[in-house]
Task: inverse folding
């Protein structure tokens, strides 16, 4: 759930020797991985798909780390604190999405890499539909989504860096971006994957430890429940303070939307042995469930502690996690969780940089019939350029950055789920259907999100642009495909049949 | 002329949808999308979405996901298990809307949470996490990928001349 970190104001300062020391140790570990990976990155395939040689554990933790952004640690618990259990519907599909992704896409994508050179998700779409137009359109959609996502992630990185080192937001943004660029541009996805392994472990462990403190300070779940029920009973209803339709919208978008997240899905190309996919959902679900314990637990705990008068009400919901860590956990654990938050943001950013540079240096040139000669060199420079552009965009007013980040998930889902997830499993899906669904997702998401942001109109309570555009683009894909002819190359057809 | 054109379009839609809908996964996908569409539309038609809209959308989400998964697995026992499991989960999600809210004056708890919330977190969140990955692993060779499948794909890849390289990123997996 790589939602952007939606906060637009600074965190309370964490700066102190322990927190800064742990963050420095963490940063050093990441840079060491970058140096190691840079020596092993010799081709564009190394850069974009880690040389197609990673194992199951690395795949699992890499997809986890790319999937979980800072939102899971700060924005998410803040949302639970603000609106109650309705926010939990964002992570509720976690029990099934690992297997869903594996059933629908993991095998197909990995087998495509057996029969064709595969670097990117748009590559897979070109193979499926035999169309450079589909590849190019998908690349453009991915790039548009990534620009917004990246700005929000870089800003979040700047905010946390400022809180840890006291750099100020502007320098925090540049410093954080520089660290990510250092390992993304040198080692590409190879350093990204192994940094993700390190980061995923930190995230899962930090989340589990914090949840133990949640249970401790709340006198168990029943203690938390009693307090909250006495002060704000609606908070503990299944959809909290949200309209039920809004909670269900979260479930729909985050359940089905996982089938359209290119920065996560392209990691399936990297797996060395496709038969190891058998245990991917089991390991992935376990890691994901551990990681989202903090998401659910901290929001509940802070709500109960505030109602009991044991914690001041956070001035901004996004302060719920920092407040809980600073007041209710040992400083060393707070420092590790801070590193976990940095890890979450950096790993997501790295994944976006990798996918974004692939679109610019591979997908769009190939779609235009003008492939680049030295993709590796161009990819490295594009990574630097994209990170710099995101750092500049991140200096825009916070609400605008938050807006840029908001539509990313929905845009990925509405443009890629139909053509990719349905298309790779339904032989009648056609090139025209793919083009129509990508255009539908792109145009509807951008126009509706912009119109709502500019307050040209308001949507009824509980509706979600991401959900509605996903439904619309799926219907368009099915309808247009039904009216047109599908042509599939024999090798791709075999991949779809096995 | 217009009548003939519209008949042709209707005929093509019917043929296309019957091709898609003939598959259990396709049927569930269409049903799920229709349910989600109705749920969202209801929010525009009424002053505030009706209570059933949330239940319909949440149930439709599970039905749509089940449909997508069924399109991907092979016909057989695994498809039956997956399909019935998905429909059971969809009904389970809808059932949440029937659980009464707890009385704050006399709260009852189930594993530390009010019954509806316990059902939400343990029943709809945790329980599938404990079952679905095992179903995937249990049915993997039969429904998803076996060594023979992989060998077959690799034989095909070896027999097919590699396509013209479009970048320096040539080479296949394996």
Result:
């Amino acid at each position: 759930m790589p939602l952007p970190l939606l906060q637009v104001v600074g965190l309370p300062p964490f700066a102190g020797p322990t927190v800064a020391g742990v963050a420095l140790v963490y940063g050093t570990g990441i840079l060491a991985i970058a140096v190691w990976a840079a020596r092993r990155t010799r081709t564009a395939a190394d850069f974009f798909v880690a040389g197609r040689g990673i194992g199951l554990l690395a795949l699992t933790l890499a997809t986890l780390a790319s999937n979980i952004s800072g939102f899971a640690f700060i924005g998410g618990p803040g949302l639970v604190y603000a609106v109650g259990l309705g926010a939990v519907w964002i992570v509720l599909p976690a029990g099934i999405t690992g297997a869903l992704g594996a059933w629908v896409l993991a095998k197909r994508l990995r087998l495509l890499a057996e029969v064709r050179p595969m670097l990117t998700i748009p590559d897979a779409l070109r193979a499926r539909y035999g169309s450079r137009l589909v590849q190019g359109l998908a690349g453009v959609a991915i790039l548009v989504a990534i620009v917004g996502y990246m700005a929000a992630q870089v800003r979040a990185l700047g905010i946390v860096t400022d809180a840890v080192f006291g750099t100020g937001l502007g320098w925090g943004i540049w410093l954080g971006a520089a660290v990510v660029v250092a390992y993304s541009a040198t080692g590409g996805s190879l350093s990204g994957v192994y940094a993700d392994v390190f980061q995923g472990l930190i995230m899962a462990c930090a989340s589990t430890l914090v949840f133990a403190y949640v249970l401790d300070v709340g006198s168990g779940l029943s203690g938390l429940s009693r307090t909250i029920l006495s002060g704000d009973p609606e908070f503990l209803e299944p959809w909290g303070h949200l309209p039920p339709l809004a909670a269900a919208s979260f479930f729909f978008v985050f359940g089905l939307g996982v089938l359209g997240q290119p920065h996560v899905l392209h990691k399936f190309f990297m797996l060395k042995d496709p038969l190891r996919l058998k245990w991917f959902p089991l390991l992935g679900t376990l890691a994901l469930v551990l990681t989202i314990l903090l998401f659910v637990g901290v929001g509940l705990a802070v709500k109960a502690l505030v109602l009991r008068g044991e914690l001041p009400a956070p001035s901004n919901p996004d302060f719920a996690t920092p407040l809980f860590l600073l007041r209710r956990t040992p400083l060393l654990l707070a420092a590790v969780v801070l590193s976990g938050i940095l890890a979450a943001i950096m790993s997501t950013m790295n994944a976006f940089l990798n996918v974004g540079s692939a679109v610019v240096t591979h997908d769009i040139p190939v779609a235009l019939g003008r492939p680049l000669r030295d993709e590796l060199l161009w990819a490295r420079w594009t990574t630097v350029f994209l990170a710099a552009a995101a750092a500049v965009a991140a200096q825009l007013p916070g609400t605008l950055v938050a807006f840029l980040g908001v539509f990313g998930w929905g845009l990925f889902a509405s443009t890629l789920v139909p053509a990719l997830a349905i298309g790779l499993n339904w032989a009648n899906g056609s090139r025209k259907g793919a083009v129509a669904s990508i255009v539908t997702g792109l145009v509807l998401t951008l126009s509706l999100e912009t119109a709502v942001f500019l307050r040209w109109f308001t949507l009824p309570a509980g509706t979600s642009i991401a959900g509605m555009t996903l439904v619309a683009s799926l219907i368009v894909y099915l309808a247009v495909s039904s009216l047109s002819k599908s042509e599939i190359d024999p090798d791709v057809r075999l991949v779809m049949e096995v | 002329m217009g009548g003939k054109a519209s008949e042709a379009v209707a005929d093509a839609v019917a043929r296309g949808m019957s091709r898609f809908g003939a598959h259990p996964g396709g049927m569930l996908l269409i049903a799920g999308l229709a349910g989600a569409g109705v749920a969202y539309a209801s929010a525009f038609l009424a002053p505030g979405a009706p209570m059933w809209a949330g239940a319909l959308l949440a149930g439709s989400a599970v039905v749509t996901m089940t449909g997508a998964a069924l399109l991907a697995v092979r016909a057989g026992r695994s498809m039956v298990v997956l399909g019935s499991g998905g429909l059971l989960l969809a009904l389970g999600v809808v059932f949440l809307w029937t659980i009464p809210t707890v009385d704050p004056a006399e709260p009852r708890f189930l594993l530390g949470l009010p019954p509806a919330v316990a059902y939400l977190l343990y029943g709809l969140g945790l329980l599938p996490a404990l079952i679905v990955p095992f179903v995937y692993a249990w049915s993997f060779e039969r429904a998803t990928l076996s060594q023979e499948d992989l060998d077959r794909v690799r034989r095909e890849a070896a027999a097919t001349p590699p396509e013209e390289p479009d970048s320096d990123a040539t080479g296949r997996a394996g």
Summary: Residues 169-217 of chain A form the longest helix (49 residues).
